[in-house]
C-alpha cells in the first residue's frame, strides 16, 4: 500500500500517480502553480485513484465560482466509481456536501478527517479554507492547533500547519502569537504565501505600516513568483499604501500586481479588485476605467447568487461603474437565493442582502439607510465569510456614509473606534480628523 508524503495510506498502487499526487499536495499547500494539472497527471497514471479525484473535487468546489460546478461534479462522479479507502471516501463526501451547497457540513466533515487523521494536511487545509468562507474564526485557529500534535518541528508539513494556525490566531485577535507562528513558518519556507499572509494580517489589524510594508515589499521575491495567491498579498500591500494616503502607488500596484490582466477570470481576484476600487471610491479617488473593466468580468457571475460574499463584491463593481441596473439584478438574484436552501441562503438572508442594500443606498445618497443597515449587520457579518481586513470595508463604508450624510456623532464614534484599534494608522487619523471637522462645522452652524 502506498502512502502520501505525510504518511496517509492511499488507494493507488501506481508509484507514478503517487508522485504526481504528492506534487499536487505541495502545490495546494503553497497555493502555487497548477495543482489541477498535477492531479490530472496523477489520474492519467491511475484513473482509479479515488483520492486524486476527491482532492480535485475539493479544490474545485472551494473556488466559490459556479463556472467550476460541472468539472467538480465530474470529479465527484468519477471518484465515486474509483478505488477509495475510508478516508478518501470522506474527502469525496465533503466535496459533494460543498457541491450541493452544504458548506458547513462539508467543512465539518473535513475537520473530522483531520482530527482522526492528523497527518492529513489536505483535509486540514480544505477545512481551513471552509472556515474562512464560513467565518468560523475559532475553528480557523483551533483545528490547525490540534493537528500540530502529529508533526515534529521541522518535519515536512509542520510549517504549513503553523501558517494556518497563525492566520486563525490573528482572526481571533491573538496578534502576538499569530506573529510568532507566522514568522516561524516563513523562516522554514519563505515561499509559504499563506504564512506570509497571516503576518500581513497582523500588521494590517495593528495599522502597523512600518512593519507591514517591508514585510510584503521586501520579501516578494520569495512569496510572489508562481503563486496563485500573490494577487491577494499584493492587495494587502495596497491597503497599507492606501493607509499612507499614497493613492498613486495603490493604483500602480493594482494595475501591475492585483489585476495585471484586467480580463482574468478568477473570482477571488475580482473580489480583491472590487474591494480595493471601492475603498478608493470612498476616498473620492478617480479610478478611471478600472471599475468598468471589472464590472464587465463580474457580469457573467452577477446573477449566480452562489456565495453572498461574492455577490456584495459584484455589486461594488457595478455601482462603481455606474451600472445601477446590474447591481439591482444581482440584488434580485440574492433575494431569490435567500429563499432557497443551503448555507448560502442563510448567509444571504442574514448578511449579504442587508449589506447589498446598504451599498446601493450609499451610491444613491441615502446615507442614513446605509449606516443603519451596515451597523445592524456588522456584528454578525463574519457569518458570510472573509477576514476582518476584508470586512473592514463595511466599517469604512458606514463611516464615509456618516461623513457624507452629516451624521457627525456617528462618524466620530466609528472613527474613534478605528483609531483605538489602529493608533498608528495615518488613515485612521485622517478619518478621525474629518469626523471632528464635521462635528465642529455643525456646532458652528
Ligand atoms: Fe487577507
Approximately how much helix is present in the residues? Answer: over 70%
State the name of the first-level CATH class of one domain. Answer: Mainly Alpha
* Largest β-sheet summary: none
Rg over C-alpha atoms, rounded to the nearest angstrom: 22 Å
The secondary-structure class comes to mainly alpha
Shape: globular
In the CATH classification, which architecture of one domain applies?
Alpha Horseshoe
| Molecules bound to protein | fe (ii) ion
Could you tell me the CATH topology label of one domain. Answer: Serine Threonine Protein Phosphatase 5, Tetratricopeptide repeat
First-to-last CA distance:
81 Å
Q: Work out the helix count.
A: 24
Q: What is the residue-averaged pLDDT? A: 97
H and E string: HHHHHHHHHHHHHHHHHHHHHHHH
By DSSP, the count of extended strands is 0
Low-confidence region ranges? none
Strand content: under 5%
